Amino acid sequence: MVQGIANWNTEETQEWLQQYVDDWVTFYRKNTDDGELASYIPELQKADPNALGIVIRGNNGMTLRSGDTGEQFTLQSISKAITFIVACMERGVSYMLNNVDVEPTGEAFNSIMHLEMKQVKKPLNPFNNAGAITVTSTLPGTTSDERLEPVFQLLENMFGHRLKLNHAVYESERKSSTRNRAIGYYLLEVGFLESDLDVTLETYFKQCSIDVTIDDLARIGQVLANDGMDPKNGEEIVPRQIARITKVLMLTCGMYNASGKFATYVGIPAKSGVSGGILAAVPPRVRDDTMPFIDGCGIGVYGPALGEEGNSVAGIRLLRHIATQWDLSIF
After folding, report:
1. Is the domain of 258 the same as that of 302?
2. Residue 3: is its pLDDT beyond 90?
3. Average pLDDT over residues 173-197
4. Is 97 in the same domain as 197?
5. Has 256 been annotated as catalytic?
6. Is residue 248 flagged as an active site residue?
7. Containing structural domain, residue 241
8. How many domains does one find in the chain?
9. Which pLDDT value is given to residue 12?
10. What's the first-to-final CA gap in the chain, in angstroms?
């Protein structure tokens, strides 16, 4: 069942689709041995490296859950997509795109080299650390808690409950933040930051330390897949233009310097984090054949064993298989 390409004869009942996903999670769990836990944030070393789980929330009302779906973990770099959305909503799209570009870097997410060597006039995209810190500096408020409030409010609008900050991870990030502080000082020197460096970094560390589950990630993905609207009631949660720009950035820049390979072999907008989470948005598709989740879906994946680019090894392989079997690619 695990091998093969697009399966045009897949049963579409929830029972059958659940069996497929359960089988695939079991198959790809062994791939966790090919990765390692993030080491530069000590608190993330406490995760179970063998964990793997997935949630798929369809616009048709169907939800599939398999594997380690109850694990809580922190957003880490997935928060960059959320804060970019919030900043665009608070400051305007044109304003934000004047402060941060939309181009892939081809470098590691925490690179400083490309900033100096390319002499850029603004960070190349909001999903590497330099761009994300710049975006965080534009959030309104004088304290980190004030700046994070619209982030929490947006997430609460999606979930119906308020998320919490993981203080242990926040302290671990704050104490081991040498590289991000170096990036911050460079951004300050060249005039990219709009506000106090210490408050900006405190906000950035906190946004990365918000606890979520893969159910939460799937819900975010579902809203983005639906161009910012809640598929249950048609309410606009994120303006359509902002949702679409965010999906473009997720596709071109969301998987660090493996974004090109992910777009080629999986073909859906996604954003990863070094805690092992992956947020994916599958827009509605036009196909001659009926396929699972053809009306679109959001996907949340958790697998904390990472590859060298900082993405979940088993999570990417699981997503690639599902995208191939069910023809989820946007292309």
Report:
1. yes
2. no
3. 91
4. yes
5. yes
6. no
7. 14-72+213-325
8. 2
9. 73
10. 24
Is the same domain home to 231 and 271? Answer: yes
Query: Based on the domain organization, do 92 and 202 belong to the same domain?
Result: yes
Annotated catalytic residue 77: yes
Active-site position among 266, 274, 282, 313? 274
Annotated binding residue 311: no
Per-residue pLDDT reduced to its tens digit, 205-260: 999 999 999 999 999 999 999 999 999 899 999 999 999 999 999 999 999 999 99
Q: How far is CA 133 from CA 94, 149, 206, in A?
A: 18, 17, 12
Report residue 248 CA to chain centroid gap: 13
Q: Which of 256, 275, 302, 312 is catalytic?
A: 256
| Residue 95 assigned ligand-binding role | no
Residues 239 and 309 in one domain: yes
Is position 40 annotated as part of the catalytic site?
A: no
Is the same domain home to 177 and 219? no
Q: How far is CA 314 from CA 45, 181, 267, 292, in A?
A: 17, 31, 17, 22
Q: Is 177 a catalytic residue?
A: no
Please report, as a single letter, which amino acid is at residue 184.
G
Q: Is 111 annotated as a binding residue?
A: no
pLDDT over threshold 60, residue 112: yes
Q: Are residues 198 and 80 in the same domain?
A: yes
Catalytic entry in 25, 80, 144, 169: 80
Residues 184 and 301 in one domain: no
pLDDT digits (tens, 9 = 90+) for 245-293: 999 999 999 999 999 999 999 999 999 999 999 999 999 988 767 789 9
